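Good morning,

Both structures are done.
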Amino acid sequence: MKINNHFTYQKADGEGAKAAPKRSEVDPKICWDLSLIYKNLAEWEKDFTKVKDSLPKLQAYQGKLAESAEQLASFLKESENCSLKMAQVYVYSSMLSDQDKSNSENASLVARAGSLYAQFAAALSFYEPELIAAGKERMEELIAQNEDLKLYKHKLEQMLRTAEHILSAREEEILATASEVLSSGSKVFSVLNNADLKFPDVKDSKGELHPLNHATFGTYLREADRELRKNSFEAMYKVYEQFRNTLAMTLSQQMKNDNLQAELRGFDSARAAALFANAIDESVPDNLIKIVNENIGLLHRFVTLKKKLAKLDELHCYDLYLPAYEDSGKRYSIEEAAEIILEATKPLGDDYQKIIKRAFDEKWIDFPVNQGKRSGAYSSGSYTTRPYILMSWQGTMDNLFTLAHELGHSAHSFLTRREQPAVYGSYPIFLAEIASTTNENLLTQYLLGKADTEEEKNSLRFNWLDGFKGTVFRQTQFAEFEHFVHLKDQEGVALSADFLSDHYAELNKRYYGPDLFNDPLIRYEWARIPHFYYNYYVYQYATGFAAAISFSELITNGGAAEREAYLGFLSAGCSDYPLEILAKAGVDMRETKPLEIAMQRFEAELSQFEKSLDA
């Protein structure tokens, strides 16, 4: 089952406020049209039953897959058809629920779809081990005998790559049985972080109390009230300081699990194991850390600039997220936003423009703010559905960029599904953020060209620089810390709270430079980052952002060939390995060049901003 879900935090004024209308009260013209998937629940029930009835038929293939080419081709086709229906059933119920989480009937549909998916996954669990056991020679033999199997050649090759890292049947059974115990670090952290940690209310400069939690913390750090920012920062990290030893134990457990799994499967390191599935060379994260550290002076300059704009004698960690410019109050209608995004993406050509128009005309986008609606924004769907978008539209500049971002995901999904067969109709996380961020870059360049005043231009530049800081520099800082603690655990070093905190404090100081006051409590930031439990996930945010900058420059400065190369990337799905897909499109992430281009762009925008302020 393949579903491309891309979630974005979207700050919305009054999000979830009592004044929001009920779902039944919003204008249907600005709602997505899920009837394009199923006209009614009876149709959904029909497909639900079809999937359920297909499972025994698929299980009947067990032990027979490698008997003949016809048998294997038949199974792959039938399992693919079942997977497509399963994904459509799940996507529909999930999105129906997201538009109003208070609707118990829709929640029930999601629960049923989730249960069916568990049955579907269990029914098909036999086929990969069975084909791997048959061996590469037998697979090549079967593919040569059947024209239909040639379509699945790359998929089967990917599967067989793992053969040398597959253990004996008994060993695999033991690992599977122990998986719940081995993953306890991540699970305990999740429960502690999301359910058990309680944060005190915090005061603003007027003495008024505000509730502090994970959702409000980021909002408060962007508030003009410095007292609120300071109190929020200190209250949050004092809680993590209190539980630092427990959280060091959960993180240590995660590192031990990652390293143990890698060792048992014959990998040199946890990172090598994590990157293996998508054939990502370890030079990619190594190059990222190297180039970022070589250019760390640019981040120091940005911090100095932020201190100057904030007019502070000391810039503290709780001042880092303060916006440089106040909200201008300008608001965009949905129609204006559509026109702006279409103009901004003109360099991508007529076909791309038609996809964007279809998103609005065919109602792929759910705009309203209503009670019970899932917070944030995303692009989601399956191979047989439109690539839908959910967000809460309030017409702000942030909303405009969020919409452009999600339309990038949706256009990527649409082109992939249009140009690729179902077996290659999705794409990996390594590629996912490139299309969305390329759209944001194109939108920034378009708005800069249309800005009437230098203040407008500086506001746009600063937002872009701040986004770069958060996505490239900050995520690389996380990636460097994550790799360090994996290696130290592999060396047998005890990952105590003091050891982790001391290293994180040093790393933070090195990244942000002398103009940031290193508040003592920042040393505990590692304790609240869930991405450290995701096994080498974070570096992909930074590489995706860097690749997007290269693509946006190739598109803007190039011609038809560069545009077609980029559209080729958007249309490739998972028909090849991610690095190969990017290299064919003109951006080779195995080299340092895309990272160097990203740093050059950051420096150019930073210098322009500094020059404008001096003038």
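Second structure follows.
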Amino acid sequence: MRRKKQKEQEARENQERMLETQEKKEWSLFKKQTIKEIIAPTGIDASDLNGLEIISATNKLARTFYVSNLPRMATFPSLFRDLYNFGDVNVSLYINPVGEERSQKELNKIINELETERLVAQDRGSINRESDLSYKKSETEQLRDEIAAGFNKLYEATIMATLFAYSQTELDNLAKMLSSEMAKNLISVRSAWGIQEEAFKSNLPFAENRLENKAHVFDKKSMCTVFPFINADIGHSTGIPLGYNKQTGNLILYDNFSSSLANYNMVIFAKSGAGKSVTMKVLTSRSAVLMGIESLALDAEGEYILVAEALGGVNVTISPNSNTVINLFDVEVEQVKDEITGRERTVLNIENKVEDVTQSILTMARGSTRSTEVNELTKQIIAETVAEEYRRLRITNDPMSLYERSDSIKSSKKEMPTIGSWYKTLQRKAEANTNPDYNYQYSYLLKVMKQYIREYNGQMAYFDGQSTFELLSNIPFINLDISQLEERFARPLAQQILLSWIWEKYVKKNSEDKKKSRKKRVLVDEAWMLLPYPEAVDFLNTMARRARKRNVSLAIVSQRFQDFYEKPEAQAVLTSSDTKLFLAQDKSEVELLKEVFKLSEGEVAYLVNCTKGEGLFKVGQDSAILQITPTKKEFEFVETNLNKIVEAERKGKLR
């Protein structure tokens, strides 16, 4: 019995030894596998000295670069921003601290070398060279002393990047582009020629640096400039809760009028149904309630009627059937600072107003067909007639010329010229004209402009007459609804005329008293309608540039970013907007966004696939993935989907 148990014990031990031997053989085989076999079983072809081919289903090409030269001075966090945001690129930073003993030894050696070179330069009479070496020596001594006192430290850092592409031509083009972008910050990047495989392995997540001889020396202060991590959250310390950062889950506070912004303007681009209107309704309603910001919407689709009602604002409808009249000849005074004395003074700039009215009438004269009959002669006739209208009423650059002269203490404001009175002046000038070169232009204007004159029952006469509506102060939301106008021409024309009128009645008034100047926002919905009309685009650009001085934010909401970017006349709107929000995009649009704003592949993919209310939020140089979710109460006036509104009402009744 004992012998039988002994044999069983020996059999078990033999089996365990065999299993152990087998495991050792398998581990040995695994250890013999190369890095290629572990991470890419299909293999990596490193036959090219200046790149790698990753043999897989996609056959991607890769080229690894290392930073070879750095600028003398660097600022955080812009040193390697272009590298981190370049596109399909992997970046590695290998940082090794240098011991204090070695630091002191190396720095003392450099100090001695600099002193020797300085003495040689002094003997040769090279004053500039001597001065430069003295400065470098002083810097090095200061660094050595800081390290000795424990206030600083030296580091050796190797920075490398692997660029990926699907063709050799694309890889070469991207490599040139990367070198060009980095050169803007005085940074040189070089391809790891001849050692591409070693460089590629160094840029894999194995923490094995095989390019140690390409390291640069940093001190503690300059070392922070290489890190891509500044703050996962964007926004401001104060402001409205706009939405959530989907990357961190934190709330984003946004202050449209923060002093950290270069300007107060913002643009929102997204495809139809992505949530543009909902976003602006949330922004305007929360900023009105929480920050007291007044907003005025130029509403092309009737989207903001409920918002105005919910906030206790005003709805004004411009249509052929309404009694509301907006006079494009209205002009107001404004406060400007004297460049010499620095004092504020009241001015009335009639020359600018004549130009604004001329631009509006030019758009009217061109009509929906954008007629080529309108030329410089036409503009000259219009401008002369507009100027004559103001002269007829003795309105000059003197602010007091806006008022009737009276012996009484109070003086009433003069009635302004109108498009109807301008037309009569045009008729008189046409009858008195003796220059045959102007006959056709007068004839054309008299025919085409009749449709805007109330006396002739013109179908677009809603801009003829004295204004029946005054833009009042302290109103949280004013909505100018032009949705009932014809879409192809009447709405863009109304947008242009109303923008000019808003500038006079709403924006200029915000500069009358700097101490009481309120924060105001002008919202232009469906701004793409203005783009075919050069005079309208020109005024929009001017407004974008000048709004900040009057503590006003211009908000542009449109569908296609490409329409604005590819039209040089409209690019000032983009460059003058420090805040940009890109919601869901069409595939045709997203490539242009990627090129212009250096978006990563992940950001591009997100913009194509994100859901309603989600997008890329850029404030200055910072960006985040934003999710905007209206509250239950806000849903009552921000939702525009009729099906969802009906469903919500049905559920409400059921409850």
